Amino acid sequence: MYGLFERGWYTRANAVECARFSFEGPRGAVRCAGVALGQAATAGAVIALEGPLGAGKTTLTQSIARGLAVPVEQRVTSPTFAIVLRHAGRVALYHADLYRLASVHDVDELGLFAQSEDGVLVIEWPERASARMPADVLWIELERVAPLRRRLSLRATGPSSADLVHSVETAITAREALMELGRRAR
Predict the structure, then answer these.
(1) Burial category of 119 from C-beta neighbours within 10 Å (exposed 0-12, middle 13-18, buried 19 and up)
(2) Residue-number span of the structural domain to which 108 is assigned
(3) How many domains, in total, are found in the chain?
(4) DSSP string over the chain
(5) What is the phi/psi pair of residue 156, to 5°?
(6) Which of 49, 52, 64, 171 could form a disulfide with 57 if both were Cys (CB 3.0 to 4.6 A apart)?
């Protein structure tokens, strides 16, 4: 089995966690998780992606975009220089890369949270805005464990983000069950 899913209330670093799920898998599993997130996300959702350069934050965002029905023709790339890019889909995707921001005041000047209320906000390098994050956020830590494998740790801090965690857990569990059936059929 890929991971562990828990529901309940936990406290960590001044945030209340209501669900968490971790899994390790190939790029296909990460894509599956992203599509599941996009399909389940509703306007107002905030997804914070943590991890070093090359961990797969933009790749995960591309899969979230597919789940939000952002047309394939709309290339989802890292908005490092633009800071925030909007992509039209079933629900708008706001993709923010805060790497170049110097302070929380820069986040305030952007009006990041106000401008993205009608869509799903995915933030790379969210620690730049940690003092301004809303109460209900899905935090995803990505770690590169091998060239083609990633470990994702999801942590929800409210009921809406807990629902997103559950959607990923369901999708990954179903994917693993189908792969196991395929292995047995050989």
Answers:
(1) buried
(2) 3-185
(3) 1
(4) --EEEEEEEEEETTEEEEEEEEEEEEHHHHHHHHHHHHHH--TT-EEEEE--TTSSHHHHHHHHHHHTT--TTS-----TTTSEEEE-SSSEEEEEE-TT--SHHHHHHHTHHHHTTTEEEEEESGGGGGGG--SS-EEEEEEEEETTEEEEEEEE-SHHHHHHHHHHHHHHHHHHHHHHHHHHH-
(5) -100, 140
(6) 49
Please say if the pLDDT value at position 83 is more than 80: yes
Q: Tell me: the pLDDT tens digits for 136-149?
A: 999 999 998 888 88
Q: What is the CATH number of the domain that holds 43?
A: 3.40.50.300
Return all residues near 183 (Cβ < 8 A) that are at least 6 apart: none
Residues 113-172: pLDDT tens digits? Answer: 888 899 999 999 999 888 889 999 999 999 988 888 888 999 999 989 999 998 888 888
Q: In what order do the strands lie in the sheet with 149-156?
A: 3-12, 15-26, 149-156, 138-146, 46-50, 119-124, 92-97, 84-87
